[in-house]
Amino acid sequence: MLTITAYSAAGEMLARAEHPTEALLCVDRVYEDGDFIQLHSDTPHLWVQLDATLLPGEVYLPGGAMTWRVPFGEHRLAYSPVAFQGQRHIVTARAMNAAEIAARRNIACNPADLRGDTDFFPHCTANVETRNEACFCARNVIDGMRHNTYHGEWPFQSWGIGAREDAWCLLDFGREVTVDEMALTLRADFPHDAYWVAGHVVLSDGAEVAFDLAKTGDRQRIPLGRHTLRWMRLERMQKSDDPSAFPALVEWEVFGCDA
User: Fold this and answer.
1) Residue 158 near residue 126 (C-beta atoms within 8 A)
2) What is the predicted pLDDT for the residue at 197?
3) pLDDT for the residue numbered 161
4) Among 63, 148, 213, 254, which is least packed by CB within 10 angstroms?
5) How would you class 242 by CB atoms within 10 Å of its CB: exposed for 0-12, middle for 13-18, buried for 19 or more?
6) Helix or strand or coil: residue 200?
7) First-to-last CA distance in the chain?
């Protein structure tokens, strides 16, 4: 059974939908700060869309439940200006089938990811986010959006490193997956932006892969070999000699399937 419930900050139930395989929820309310959505599922793999303005994507629920806080205040700058606005909202979720789970796909993409601790995956964190602003937080690199010719508010959100040379970004899948390739899309607001010429990705199976990057806004594919792992970490990113101090990452895609 799959259940979606919307709650106020005080825990008052606002709306609820339930279905064996696909739940469709409509919330008639102007969202208030602290409102949240809870999903409960008998199966851990779901395809969800948390707002009509968000891309749909895959989530994994290791505990069979997911709590999603409606973004408010500064957090909204990484989303469409019309996201979460108005009197009526929709939330949809469906169970993924066995063929979808076994298929090779971008297993990193999770538009529902949030800053801070989450009980659902994939989830991105980092040791630095420029000025601690939502426009430059780690979750942006798995939101499914690759618009990269500017910097700042949606649709140009990115992971910014605040000119730190020791910056790293961790992608946690929440379970074991088998991967063979990744792709990075750099922010390309040149000449405001610099770019990385090289970096390393450390894999939770003990391996690491060094890679080179070019000055381009195009997706750059990086073969990894075949690895079964739970997490990956970008680190030791080497900046170009451009005068700009601002390299940034717009999207991190990882191709593979569930182990």
Assistant:
1) no
2) 98
3) 96
4) 63
5) middle
6) strand
7) 24
Rounded Cα–Cα distance for residues 51 and 68 (Å): 11
- Give 153-185 as a DSSP string: STTS--EE-TT-TT--EEEEEEEEEEEEEEEEE
3-state secondary structure 185-254: EECCCCCCCCCEEEEEEEECCCCEEEEECCCCCCCEEEEEEEEEEEEEEEEEEEECCCCCCCCEEEEEEE
Q: Is 92 helix (H, G, I), strand (E, B) or coil?
A: strand
Tokens of 176: 């074991």
Q: How far is CA 177 from CA 104, 114, 141, 227, 256, in A?
A: 10, 21, 19, 8, 7
What values do phi and psi take at 46, rounded to 5?
A: -130, 155
The three-class DSSP label of residue 87 is coil
Q: Give per-residue pLDDT as tens, 165-217.
A: 999 999 999 999 999 999 999 999 999 999 999 999 999 999 999 999 999 99
Q: What is the mean pLDDT of the chain?
A: 97
- According to DSSP, the β-strands at 169-186 and 220-239 are antiparallel
CA-only gyration radius of the chain, Å = 18
- pLDDT for 223: 98
Residue with tokens 């970008």: 234
CA 59/CA 66 separation, integer angstroms: 9
In Å, how far are 14, 37, 133 from 34, measured between CA atoms? 13, 10, 19
pLDDT in tens, 215-256: 999 999 999 999 999 999 999 999 999 889 999 999 999 999
